[in-house]
Amino acid sequence: MAGHAVKHDYHLVDPSPWPFVASVGAFLLGVGAVGLMKGLVGEDNPLYIFYGEGQWLGFLIGLLVILITMFGWWGDVIKESRKGDHTPVVDIGLRYGVILFIASEVMFFVAWFWAFFEYAIFHDVRLDPGLASWPPAGVETFDPWHIPLMNTLILLLSGTTVTWAHHALQHGDRRGAKLGLIATVILGACFSALQVVEYTQAGFAFSMADGGNLYGSTFYMATGFHGAHVLIGTIFLAVCLVRLLAGHFTPEKHFGLEAAAWYWHFVDVVWLFLFAFVYVTFQ
Questions:
Q1: pLDDT attached to residue 210
Q2: Which residues contact 106 (CB under 8 A, 6 or more apart)?
Q3: For FRET with 149, which of 5, 86, 263, 268 sits at 20 to 30 Å CA-CA?
Q4: Is the Cα dihedral 243, 246, 247, 251 positive or negative?
Q5: Residues 137, 266: one domain?
Q6: In terms of domains, do 31 and 66 share one?
Q7: Range of the domain at 50
């Protein structure tokens, strides 16, 4: 009936500019990245003002718009949660959403593992009948028992600290939750720093001849994208730490931290597969 509010457990979000803003940012970022990598924009192209002499301009503007969108959109989600809009039904939807997101990330890495195993197992058929080994001759691989092993231990330890933080919060131990999150963020930063050192020392020196381009591309895409996920997960956990310090989380309601922990465990498991197969088995 008119004049009576509809009561239900769902949250109908307010009109938001962020989907449109994100689309604009993604377009600028994508075209800017293509322009930087391939130099496809000529002087007769209307986008030359962004991607001509200063090709970085459009890329950086797109990146800035995306970052602003992330800050604003997720900030709105946090505000909705603080207002009580995330009812138990909405909470279930959020959980399903994070689970499906992680499932899509799993398939993303499955693609890279598939490519790597395809070349590693069937290199003599798929690449060159004369290619007798994988990695191809002349490709100098990383020693898995130095930096990769250290990073493995770091991620395994970080998996325990984020679990500590989660369980501490569930039992009302806010100090333990803070210490666990701080330790996890530090460990994530250490992993990223060591990966930068590893890449720098290698100098991206995989040979581009005799199949080395395929080995290098599959190796760097798999490990590089994993490194990007570690960086994203570290930022995710750092935001949760800030929210914890601000008093946003309670033992009963802390899905933001729980989602970050799920994501971090996913990152850990992917690295174990990378270390076991990409670094050790097919070195």
A1: 41
A2: 266
A3: 263
A4: positive
A5: yes
A6: yes
A7: 1-85
* SS3 letters across 90-157: HHHHHHHHHHHHHHHHHHHHHHHHHHHHHHHHHHHHHCCCCCCCCCCCCCCCCCCCCHHHHHHHHHHH
Q: What is the CATH number of the domain that holds 232?
A: 1.20.120.80
Average pLDDT value for residue range 1-18:
69
Burial of 221 (0-12, 13-18, 19+ CB in 10 A): middle
Q: Are residues 175 and 257 in the same domain?
A: yes
The CA-atom distances, in angstroms, between 8 and each of 24, 83, 273 are 34, 16, 44
Residues 54-79 have a mean pLDDT of 88
Number of domains, the chain: 2
Do 113 and 73 belong together in one domain?
A: no
Of 85, 100, 124, the residue that ends a domain is 85
Report pLDDT digits (tens) over 230-258. 999 999 999 999 999 999 999 988 999 99
Q: Are 264 and 238 in contact (CB under 8 A)?
A: no
190 compared with 10, residue with greater pLDDT: 190
